[in-house]
Amino acid sequence: MLNFSVLMPIYYKEKPEYLFQCLESLANQTLPATEIIIVKDGKLTNELEETLSIWEEKLPIKIVGYEENKGIVFALNYGLRYCSYELVARMDSDDICLYNRFEKQIEHFEKNRDIVLLSGFISEFNKTPNDIDSIRKVPQGNINISKYLKKRCAFNHVAVMFKKSVIFSLGGYINDIEDYDLWIRVVQAGYSVDNLNEILVYVRIGNNMFGRRSGFSYAKKEIKFLFSQRDRKFISNLELIELLLTRVPFRLLPPKFLSIIYSKLLR
Questions:
Q1: For the residues 247-260, what does the mean pLDDT come to?
Q2: Architecture of the structural domain at 4-207
Q3: Are 235 and 229 in contact (CB under 8 A)?
Q4: From 11, 137, 217, 261, which residue has the greatest number of CB atoms within 10 Å?
């Protein structure tokens, strides 16, 4: 089996019990990670530090970081430099991996050596993984993924595994909408990508997920992002207008209504 790194940023607002459950899911993998790079995006609370100390004795954890919070884009690029292996799996510090996530992804990479980016479905929950709110499914195959990317992100970021050298060659994470922009650059560069037709990660949506994706500030980021994709010729002027009219207004809705739209209409 191929060696691989797990890349996970963390900052002081994370709950220690969520981090514990996340790391526990990594310990229970049928194919454990070769190393786990945890990026401390600024100083952490004592409770978080204690949780990390517990799992440092049980998992191949390497902790890196810096004193001041700089945001996820900086944290991911920073952490990538410390990943020892070509294959890197993303993970958020409040989510839970299915027990065979890495085994499934590594098997797919071994059978499809041209693939550089691979994700899969996620199951979104409120309080416990059994409390399923919705399942975010994503398309399979290069053609379907390329079409889907024009309107929505075709990969679940917390479930991706990618080849580090390709991500570095494309400049890494550079946009405030950090993953969507990167995946478009991967596809535009002509690389082979795919998604597994199964759930890989349980994702918390009660942890202010929709609050982070709404508001005037996020709407401005989305507008800037859409114009950048037009400038790169990934979308046409007509597609730009359509996306501005159909996507941006949703960002101005209260998080509660945005949550309903995501779970009932977009999943």
A1: 63
A2: Alpha-Beta Complex (3.90)
A3: yes
A4: 11
Kindly state the average pLDDT of the residues 175-183.
80
CA distance 170 to 110: 23
Torsion of CA 87, 93, 94, 95, to 10 degrees: 10
pLDDT (tens digit per residue) in 182-231: 999 999 999 999 999 999 999 988 655 544 555 667 778 888 888 888 98
Buried/exposed 58-80: b ≥16 CB within 10 Å, e otherwise: ebebbbebeeeebebbbbbbbbb
Looking at the chain, which residues constitute the CATH 3.90.550.10 domain(s)? 4-207
To 10 degrees, the CA torsion angle through 188, 139, 156, 105?
Answer: -90
For 73-91, the pLDDT digits (tens) are: 999 999 999 999 999 999 9
Q: How far apart are CA 70 and CA 75, in angstroms?
A: 7
Structure token digits, residue 267: 């999943």
Q: What phi, psi does 214 have (nearest 5°)?
A: -130, 170
Residue 72 dihedral angles phi and psi, to the nearest 5°: -70, -35
> pTM of the entire structure?
0.87
Per-residue pLDDT of 104-118, as tens digits, reads 999 999 999 999 999
Report pLDDT for 215.
62
User: Is there a contact between 20 and 101 (Cβ–Cβ < 8 Å)?
Assistant: no
Q: How do strand 87-90 and strand 4-10 relate by DSSP bridges?
A: parallel
In this structure, what DSSP letter does residue 31 have?
Answer: S
Which residues are registered as beta bridge partners of 209? none
